[in-house]
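Protein Entry — a single chain follows
Next Lines — sequence and tokenised fold
***
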Amino acid sequence: MNKLFFYFYSIVSFFIYLLALPFLIFLSFKAKYKASIPARFFLWNNPPLQPNGLWFHSCSFGEAKAIKPLIDVLPTESLRMSTTTHTGMSAINEYTKQSRYLPFEPLLFWWIKPQKALVVMEAEFWYLLFVLAHKRGAKTLLINARMSDRSYPKYQRIGWLYKQIFKYIDEVYAQTELDKERLESLGAKNIVVTGNIKLSQLPNVSKNLDKPLGLTVCAASTHEGEEELILEAFVALKKEYKDVKLIVVPRHPERFDKVSIMITEISEKENLSWHKYSENENFNDDIILIDSLGELVNIYAISDIVILGGSFEPIGGHNAAEAAQFGCKILSGKHYFNQKDIFDAVEGIAVVEASNLSRRLLQHALLKSTRIKNKSDIGPIIESLKSVL
């Protein structure tokens, strides 16, 4: 059955690849994909990773940053990295020159070299990635594994696929006991609950910023549909507290220009001042747009209130612990389903309806300062990886 499924899946993925080629060629001319699509689907400037290393695969910028506590205790020369996103690449490039975009599955037949271990973050369930890495000698680990209330029914509907995938995953490190139960129902084995590794070592500030006078509000990791909501709430707050400032940090760089236009319009309408951080690294204006990566933790350190993006639209939320380590007051929307375990580990987060954001922000004095109740233990993962070196 395993061989039949392997051949069937491989053939189907190859035909999907052929059918998608015209669309991929068209997309490769867009700025957002000009590096990732040629690399992932045409192997352009994307040679295989050097063999016999510890290969980490993560998708997003946040996931790539979260593995830092692991790679900090491993030999640099053994590190191999891959990702599927532009922002993820910007993060893994800081770890090693052996960093690549992960090719689309059928291309992995020609791309994967034997490695000592493959370590995959969270929910990157690529069947051929695990199968080929395993067959070529790698110990395969799934770390920080999770199954949210929202996603679990979807995984169950195609449980037959995940049962095949888990046959080639040697060890699973889950975030919670509930995640362990759900993963076991899908065929996972050798599961250890370690907690969320995003809590094992939270990012430190890279530079100390001077805190603005008065109240500082950070709109963190915002997505489409959230900036307008937050700007409206800020305008209402500004009318009551003249010395309040808003620092806007969009999640995705490709949206910087769009958010800039939005801020320009509301600033002209409400007679507010604003500037881009890339043009002037101070916080003297009413609104500051952070249009560069890697500044969010530095901003958290000088913020009084954090409005956590990705939660007022059905995105799934972002890591609240990064702000909670500084005791910030945190306002979140109700759509934090991908971060439920982190929210459970942080005390004091105020979850509000989007329609109620303005009122709760005006009542900021009633908000509690947040604190992290517990962290995680990555020791078992490190021990497992050191065993193959």
Q: What stands out?
A: The mean pLDDT is 94. The radius of gyration is 22 Å. The longest strand covers residues 139-145. Residues 179 and 323 are 25 Å apart (CA to CA).
